[in-house]
Write a structure and sequence with these properties.
The protein is mainly alpha-helical. Helices cover about 60% and strands about 5% of the residues. InterPro entries: AAA_16, P-loop_NTPase, Sig_transdc_resp-reg_C-effctor, Tscrpt_reg_LuxR_C, WH-like_DNA-bd_sf.
């Protein structure tokens, strides 16, 4: 008997080895009459049940009698529940009735049932038997003992027990033997590992009937190679019936995450007690404790921790890392939400006791539990509400020590003393009104933004989730603003949605609108479906200035309706009172995207000043980061570096949220590149924390910076890969404005260098078309000219890809575009042998202007450098 492709389905793609082993066991059962025990193991969603169903169908086709039992946690304490299921599926009701009639009336029901089950397991059948048991680790002790223990020795005839379980086989055998030595005999382990990327692609394509490429890697990562999760994603793809190169990808990632969490929680509910205790400890504070402290926190001895850790890794709930970490950070929220109050209290008591150990770098219990991201509420777990990207990588719960090249500048003012933090914590333990308590929590969060940012985030979440009422509403809104300013848009959008839901009936709608604006702003950063009701994108009445600011920013990212953007953003910044800081930053960024540089920078300066007065360090740092990005875009790289230095003085680099670090890193790297300090830029992007998470829009900025470095290194292939991923992130959020990230123009250069001028021309034409529609064609041309000038100055020969004439819209090649009069003046002086500074003095213009005109001259005439330009001009004059 061999496995053929006819038996393969989308649910068991990539399982040929396991299916072959099962086929061999069934063959031995039929042909040799052997008795065996085999357990199919594998992590969450590995397809164990699918393999069992396949085996049952295969055995029936071979003439084998098949009994099936599905074990559940609910029936795990019912004696003989599993064997009873097997008996009911193998024997007709008449035979069961006859057995029951033959039992002495005085026999206890449990003993009578035990006798009937032993009859099932010991009676020689008239044909081979397959006992298929799903989730054997959830079987009741009596059934488990008979299936893998004493019953094994008494069986006669060809019987194959084929079971599934995520728990390691040795633990099942030990439990089945009830502490006694396991009887000798064959016991096979049939492992199911995670699917590879190729196998995941095969599964998705087989189930959807569509060719999938770009979506496969990210979906495979979130699904952890689980075929069950990938099948759920494939079903969502079929339901949506939309192209995967649009903003649908975040919805698919959210579906994968929801499916994985659902199966992981089901697995966790059936874990042995020691594994469940360790899982809860890891979910709560395992990420900030040393491994040797886990036994005390989980209330286990070291040997039990090792066994429990093996079980959790076999189930796929914990990764293979050292120290141990949950497979996905977001799963911590699900585990904690499933604990009872008594269990949480016990965990907190042990954590508080550990706090006194020497060298333990954690604060109060609230600090430790505050490192866990916002809770996912049951009302928000629907697929529509969870349409967000794979959970981002969690920031470390303590402040990492900066490396040699990440030493932060000295703070602008002394960091808050420990005594201030201690005093505020003591004040929180005293009796106080709710309003005073909220004020203390926010004050402590602002102090901890530098020293313990994760704990500070936890306090802000506490304000939003527990104190969202009419009396405290201004403070709640401020807390939401501060939380979003930290950069974790994913957590912010969930917590804001939760606070909004709680306050719907208690807080007037006018007061809720700024919170909706902050939720919309967070949703714009992360993508997916909004969790709070947003204003329509083209609404004439946003309802609140904060919503006007977010609407202006949304339209600006989409390069849509520049006139409306300017009006909305200017009105917001003209009267900023009562508008959250992050909404004001959004309005200022919208003005910068609309080429109102003066208005945008003035708005950012005002935000930085107000945030500093309010001790909102993260918001001030974000405003300064935006200033730095604008300075780099407008050719003032040195000013950009000064703004970045001011931003990191407000908030040291180690205290920036990991989801915002890529943007900070990208701004510094691009500023250094524009200054010609390429080696420093390379060191910046290689810092340990400068890792794009692949989900946050901030990652797009870092991908672009790395692509520019790749072009400088002459690696056009790598640059193109980075730029395409950058474009995917931006397209998923409908960010089309080239003044944000000119990724299409850079990709056009890469395509041109790789010998694809047609593709290069299409990309460049699309970039120009968007800029012209938006009304900033001149600003974009200047931006890209400065970028090209950087490459030229660094000695990198980057030929201009063929584009389209900006006025006529027709294709042209190098050398076909006439020079303007100012450009001709510069060209004549170059031919005369003058240097740039001399040309500037002769024409009465800045040296920088000379450089920009030269860049345009090189592009128009299709030459590289001054020597080629002079030779071209001499040849033309000799011919003329």
């Amino acid at each position: 008997m061999t496995v053929t492709p006819a038996y393969a389905s989308a649910r068991i793609v990539g399982r040929d080895t396991t299916l072959g082993a099962v086929d061999a066991l069934i063959g031995g059962l039929v042909e040799n009459g052997t008795a065996d025990l085999a357990v199919v193991t594998g992590p969450v969603g590995a397809g164990r049940s699918a393999v069992l169903d396949w085996a049952a169908a295969r055995a029936r086709a071979a003439g084998v009698a098949v009994g099936v039992a599905r074990c559940t946690a609910r029936e795990s304490r019912v004696p003989y529940a599993t064997v009873t299921q097997l008996m009911a599926s193998l024997w007709p009701a008449s035979r069961i009735g006859a057995l029951a009639a033959g039992i002495d009336a005085d026999t206890e029901p449990t003993a009578a049932l035990a006798g009937m089950c032993d009859t099932l397991l010991t009676t020689t059948p008239d044909r081979p038997v397959l006992l298929a048991v799903d989730d054997l680790h959830l079987a009741d002790p009596s059934s488990l003992d008979r299936l893998v223990g004493s019953g094994r020795a008494a069986r006669r005839g060809p019987v194959l027990v084929l079971a599934t379980s995520p728990v390691p086989l040795r633990r099942i055998l030990a439990a089945g033997a009830a502490g006694a030595p396991v009887p000798p005999g064959p016991a096979h382990r049939l492992p199911l590992g995670p699917l590879t990327a190729d196998q995941a692609r095969e599964l998705l394509q087989a189930r959807t009937g569509r060719t999938l490429e770009t979506a496969v890697p990210v979906l495979t990562e979130v699904a952890a190679g689980s075929p069950a999760v990938l099948c759920a994603v494939a079903d969502r793809i079929t339901t949506l019936d939309r192209p995967l190169d649009t903003d649908v990808l975040p919805e698919l990632v959210a579906a994968a995450r929801t499916a994985w969490s659902h199966r992981a929680l089901a697995t966790a509910r059936g874990l042995p007690d020691d594994a469940a205790a360790l899982l809860r400890a890891l979910a709560a504070v395992g990420h900030v404790l040393d491994p040797h402290q886990l036994p005390a926190l989980a209330h286990l001895d070291a040997a039990a921790v090792d066994a429990a850790l093996d079980t959790l890794r076999a189930c796929g709930l914990v990764g293979e890392t050292e120290p141990p970490r949950l497979r996905h950070p977001w799963f911590a929220d699900d585990v904690l939400a499933g604990m009872t109050r008594t269990e949480r209290d016990a965990l907190q008591a042990r954590a508080a006791a550990l706090r006194g150990e020497p060298g333990l770098r954690i604060g109060t219990v609230a600090d430790m539990l505050g490192a866990v991201t916002g809770l996912v509420r049951p009302w928000a777990v629907s697929d529509a509400a969870t349409a967000a990207t794979p959970r981002p990588r969690r920031a470390p719960a303590h402040t990492p020590r900066p490396g040699p090249d990440t030493t932060p500048p000295a703070p602008a003012r002394p960091a808050p003393a420990d005594v201030t933090t201690t005093a505020l914590r003591h004040a929180l333990r005293e009796a106080a009104t709710e309003t005073d308590r909220v004020a203390l929590l926010i004050r402590l969060a602002t102090v901890e933004a530098v020293t313990a940012p994760q704990a500070g985030d936890g306090r802000l979440r506490q304000v939003l989730l527990r104190h969202a009422g009419p009396e405290t509403w201004p403070a709640v809104l401020h807390a939401a603003d501060l939380l979003l300013s930290r950069g974790d848009a994913e957590t912010a959008r969930w917590v804001i949605a939760d606070a909004h839901q709680r306050a719907l009936t208690a807080v007037p709608d006018d007061h809720l609108r700024p919170l909706r604006a902050l939720g919309r702003l967070a949703q714009g950063e992360k993508g997916g479906l909004p969790l709070v009701a947003p204003a329509p994108v083209h609404s004439d009445h946003p309802g609140h200035p904060a919503q006007s600011a977010v609407l202006a920013w949304t339209l600006a990212t989409r390069a849509d309706d520049r006139t409306r953007v300017l009006g909305l953003a200017r009105s917001v910044l003209a009267e900023p009172a009562g508008i959250p800081l992050m909404c004001r930053i959004a309005a200022a960024r919208a003005l910068l995207c609309a080429d109102d540089v003066t208005g945008g920078l003035a708005g950012l300066d005002a935000v930085a000043a107000d945030a500093t007065r309010a001790d909102a360090r993260a918001a001030a740092a974000q405003a300064l980061l935006c200033r730095a990005e604008a300075a780099v875009r407008h050719g003032r790289a040195e000013d950009g570096l000064r703004d970045l230095s001011a931003a990191t003085r407000n908030l040291p680099p180690a205290s920036w949220h990991t989801l915002l670090v890529p943007r900070l890193t990208a701004a510094e790297a691009l500023a250094l590149i524009r200054c010609g300090r390429v080696e420093e830029a390379r060191r910046v992007v290689d810092r340990p924390r400068a890792v794009p998470d692949g989900a946050s829009v901030a990652s797009g900025f870092l991908l672009y910076a790395r692509a520019e470095l790749a072009l400088i290194d002459g690696d056009a292939t790598r640059a193109l890969l980075l730029l395409e991923e950058c474009g995917r992130l931006l397209r998923a959020r409908r960010w089309r404005n080239p003044l944000l990230i000119p990724w299409r123009s850079a990709a056009a250069v890469a395509h041109h260098l790789l010998g694809a001028p047609g593709t290069a021309a299409e990309l460049l034409a699309e970039e120009r078309r968007v800029a012209e529609h938006w009304g900033t064609a001149a600003a974009f041309a200047a931006l890209w000219a400065r970028t090209e000038e950087t490459f030229t100055r660094l000695g990198v020969g980057l030929p201009r890809p063929p584009g389209r004439d900006e006025t006529a819209g027709t294709p042209h090649g190098p050398g076909d575009e006439a020079l303007t009069a100012p450009e001709q003046d510069v060209a004549d002086l170059v031919l005369a042998g003058l240097a740039n500074r001399e040309i500037a003095g002769r024409l009465g213009i800045a040296t920088r202007t000379v450089e920009l005109r030269l860049t345009r001259i090189y592009r128009k005439l299709g030459v590289k450098g001054r020597a080629a330009l002079a030779a071209r001009l001499r040849a033309e004059r000799e011919d003329g």
